[in-house]
User: Fold this.
Amino acid sequence: MSMIQVSNLKKSFGDLEVIKDMSTAVEPSEVVCVIGPSGSGKSTFLRCLNRLEEISGGHVYIDGADITDPKNNINEIRQKVGMVFQHFNLFPHMTVLENLTLAPIKLGKLKPDAAEKKALGLLDKVGLGAKAKSYPGELSGGQKQRVAIARSLAMDPKVMLFDEPTSALDPEMVGDVLGVMKDLAKEGMTMIVVTHEMGFAAEVADRVLFIDGGYIVEENIPNELFGNPQHERTKAFLSKVL
Amino acid sequence: MDTIIESLPMLWEGLKMTLYIFAIAIVLGFLIGLIMALLRLAPFKVLNWIAKIFIDAIRGTPFIVQLFFIYFGLNSFSWVSLDNVWAGIVTVAINAGAYFAEIIRAGIQSIDKGQTEAARSLGLNQSQNMRYIILPQAFRRMLPTITNQAIISLKDTSLLSIIGVADLTQRGRVIVSATFEPFTIYLALGVMYFIIIYLLSLLSSYLERRFVLR
Assistant:
């Protein structure tokens, strides 16, 4: 069974049809990078996967559960789907450690001491063990994003969604964040990454989706998609960014 | 000077009454404001309208009219019996509640929606998001405006003397009618109100520093 199954997804904002018809599936441990011009619907696609955007048509199945089915509790489904945002969205009134332990404790997943232990382990893993007691405002952009990744991992998600995780970072911070994501991919995490980092997509992705005009125009293994694009629009886009 | 010293015990009684009314009314008012703000933002049109009508009705009418409506108007029904102190408390609470509702609504809306998205994506439901993520941040931002409204409400309690509540102002009026020294007595009243309000604003700035967003 696919980890994520998207069939005939549609999403409109009022009269504006952002996603016209998209279908794809993501298998367990697969790393899928989503590329495309700005305004093409990449981020909206990603945000539909955990229902941060209500979808207008079609279906999304996470681990077999239809996220639009009212019988399924969306809050439980979201616990399985970690999300990392362009602007980090850390909770500024809490320490780094509290950012990581809040959800596991309040959602009854872990006892406070166990949550703290796990959080400290995750912070070590992203190289920020020393920052547990700091507040988000005291961290650099790259550090914030690594904390945000650790915060999502604290819920033991089955899938991680990344929405342009390095776009708001200073160039010298990008490497650290991509490094953490590479490690995660190696460990077998299922990942969907909306990104402008073509190098990362080429190196880490199992498959790349090119989205434009509300459709998945082309999808393929990175070598093929970057080296031998089939569609004119893919070629035009790649010629601008590569 | 002698008059003031002689009237101090009475003014002290009045001050206690003022603070008693203020303390209860401000807590009730805050709860009313919080509930109304949440109704105002709820995803149901009917609830939005209920809150909006309440807020507009209170903001669009004078405090004195509200006080008379509650004390004389509502008490004309046989099943209502509010003494003047409780009529006063209820009026101040409802009045403050309408203003708090707008302050709290604006505070909640000022928090970046990325915060809600992060919280919801972790699996927190909407009320957990409000409780742990949005409100703690919003209250810090609202603190100066909340203090401002609390100060206005404290001063509004002086109007309760009109329905005979034995608050600080009413005690002052009684003393003046016995001593014929309005200048000194009202000056003393003013100083007492000023001290309370000054302490209130000190408390507020302390809380602001204490809970500054890092």
